[in-house]
Design brief:
It is a single chain. With about 600 residues, the protein is of the alpha+beta class. The chain is about 25% helix and about 20% strand. It has 19 helices and 25 strands. The strands form nine sheets. A four-stranded mixed beta sheet has the order 1-10-9-8. A four-stranded antiparallel beta sheet has the order 4-5-7-6. α4 crosses α6, α6 runs antiparallel to α7 and α16 packs antiparallel against α17.
Length: about 600
């Protein structure tokens, strides 16, 4: 069976069985004549590893950001559609794109001015109403949900074709306002503006969501959240630097949109996303089948010799954490020793971070600082004020058994014949749910055993794991989370909502003061986590961040002990990625963003 197909021209659709049966693991010749023979490039096509290998095949994807099933809003939507502004969580900085400028006209009002240089791929002018429609649909769906979370955006309106007014529910400093509105960076809506205000489908859904009530409105929500529109194979139009050209079994080819305002910065014709049978880009990248990958680097030490000579990393400011999570016990029935904060501290003091280094394979790094909920990359760079603050914090992970013993005895634990006993005279035992394959968990178990605490390792299936962590039926479990920016790590949805829901920390707690003194020589300060985050967002005053970091260090719902850089890579011998460092090293889809910017590009250099 032949593998070359052009679905836009023929109208054929290939399902998952065709991909599995005829794609030869994604290494076939691609649609078009400029694939560089599979192992090289002639500079006409920039070939990127498609990270949706385990998701939808190219012909199945669509650009409806509200229907998560088989969506292509990220890949390739982020290349086809632009956005108003680009926010870098690692830098906490916003960069203009379609928006020329913005300002706070009041503490709850953000005014945005759009450029008039952007057009849709059919030549129509991009206008403020396009973005406003998308945001109004999102607000209507949020309002109809069962969530008790207060909406950050109260309303949006197009003043005219080039001006937008955003009303916020609460006061926000400008950077937080931009970050959460025109510069959002999480989820499908962050990838671009998908709605054209005069498109009949979007217009129909918008009218029903904004004007209808009751069952009619619910029917519209059901429809928009399940409909695959527009399909990638339906020749959709965007307004970004590339437009859909060909869709094959294992490849999506996008051609340069010559009328994009920054198209002159791009010196190649096609941007291609290639699908492979592997979920990791390592082999296709090292063998020259692709020129770049969005993520998946750095790689294990034993593979580094295979990297191309021009191997270059980007997204280097982004990372993910590997943490110990504790059941803090608030509002749950399960009685655990780690419900007590001093027991949590003791466990973290017993851990010996250095013992993990011989088990790491060049990907994970020891988190060498005190737990503080600040990315390891930020602390290692040393440019943020948090890198100074954390020097005064309690540092765990140093096998400080003396301090661990002091904390346990303070809570009534006793050691007898080398074994720790609980206050009621029973053997002190901790259950660890999952994580048997994690090197830090392996070390922790051995450290606790050597110290005289018995551990039990439990491996459960995913459904049981989710049930038990939400119900608070565990002692210790592993967790992993992105660590992609100072403010990103303290979002309302992440800490007071999600982390609280699985670690069950008390939302309001007294922490010892002053900062840096765990014995509290100045007493305590009551910190309500959500209120503290909101005060930080509304004022921009970093003292609230400082106190939140100390709350984390002294409460220990989780403790970061390892972190992993989350970089992408490209072959710098043939290609040049040129864009502001805050985007190049801080934005997850930097490969898509660079060609959009007036002061950035990807170029073939031969």
């Amino acid at each position: 069976m032949g593998t070359r197909r052009n679905f836009i021209k023929t109208g054929a659709v290939a399902g998952a069985t065709l991909l599995a049966g005829c794609s030869n693991s994604g290494d076939d010749p691609s649609p078009g004549a400029n694939d560089g023979g599979g192992g090289g490039t002639n500079g006409n096509r920039f070939r990127v590893f498609d990270p949706l290998t385990s998701g939808a095949t190219p012909s199945e994807r669509h650009f409806n950001p509200w229907n998560p099933t088989q969506t292509g809003c990220w890949h390739p939507g982020a290349a086809i559609f632009d956005r108003l502004a680009v926010y870098s969580p690692t830098q906490n900085e916003a960069y203009p794109l379609m928006a020329e400028s913005w300002e706070m006209s009041g503490d709850k009002t953000l005014e945005v001015t759009l450029s008039d240089k952007w057009t849709w791929h059919n030549g129509d002018q991009f206008v403020a109403q396009d973005w406003v429609m998308q945001q109004q649909i999102e607000l209507a769906i949020q309002q109809a949900s069962d969530s008790e979370e207060e909406q950050l955006i109260k309303s949006v309106e197009a003043i005219d074709d080039q001006h937008i007014r955003i009303q916020l529910t609460d006061s926000l400093s400008e950077i937080f306002a931009v970050q959460n509105t025109i510069g959002i960076y999480n989820g499908n809506l962050a990838r671009g503006i998908f709605t054209k205000h005069d498109d009949s489908k979007w217009k129909g859904w918008h009218d029903k969501l904004v004007n209808a009530e009751g069952s009619e409105k619910q029917a519209a929500i059901e429809e928009i959240t399940t409909t695959k529109y527009p399909m990638i194979t339906d020749d959709p139009i965007g307004h970004g630097p590339f437009q859909i050209s060909e869709v094959g079994d294992n490849i999506i080819v996008m051609s340069k949109y010559e009328d994009h305002p920054n198209a002159d910065n791009i010196n190649f014709d096609e941007f291609a996303l290639k699908l492979f049978s592997t979920e990791k880009p390592t082999q296709p990248y090292t063998s020259g089948k692709v020129d770049a990958a969005h993520k998946g680097f750095p790689i294990e030490d034993d593979l580094k010799s295979r990297l191309p000579e021009g191997h270059t990393l980007f997204r280097e400011g982004r990372s993910s954490n590997k943490l110990f999570s504790f059941n803090c016990g608030h509002d749950v029935d399960y009685d655990s020793p780690v419900n007590n904060v001093n027991v949590r501290k003791a466990v973290c003091h017993v851990f010996d971070r250095k013992q993990t280094t011989t088990l790491l394979q060049g990907v994970d790094r020891p988190f060498e600082w005190a737990p503080c909920r600040v990315p390891g990359k930020v602390l290692s760079n040393g440019n943020h004020e948090a890198s100074e603050w954390v020097k005064d914090f309690t540092k765990y992970g140093e096998n400080n058994t003396k301090r661990a013993g002091e904390l346990l005895r303070r809570e009534g634990y006793q050691k007898s014949n080398g074994k720790w006993m609980t206050p009621d005279g029973k053997r002190f035992k901790l259950n660890i749910m999952n994580g048997a394959d994690r090197p830090d968990i392996q070390v922790l178990k051995q450290n606790l055993k050597d110290f005289g605490i018995e551990t039990k390792q439990e491996q459960v299936d995913d459904a049981t794991f989710d049930d038990r962590r939400v119900n608070g039926e565990y002692d210790i479990m592993p967790d992993g989370s992105s660590a992609n920016g100072v403010t990103a790590m303290w979002s309302i949805g992440l800490v007071p909502d999600w982390i609280q829901s699985i670690t069950h920390f008390k939302p309001e707690r007294d922490v010892p003061m002053p900062i840096g003194d765990p014995e509290g020589s100045s007493g305590t300060k009551t910190i309500n986590v959500e209120q503290h985050i909101r005060k930080w967002q509304s004022t921009g005053d970093s003292k609230f961040h400082h106190e939140l970091m100390w709350w984390w260090n002294q409460t220990l719902p989780e403790a970061e002990m390892l972190y992993q850089p989350d970089a992408g890579a490209y072959n710098g011998s043939s290609w040049q990625l040129d864009v502001d460092s805050g985007i190049k090293n801080g934005v997850d889809d930097a490969l898509y963003i660079a060609p959009k910017m007036s002061n950035g590009t990807i170029q073939y250099k031969g």
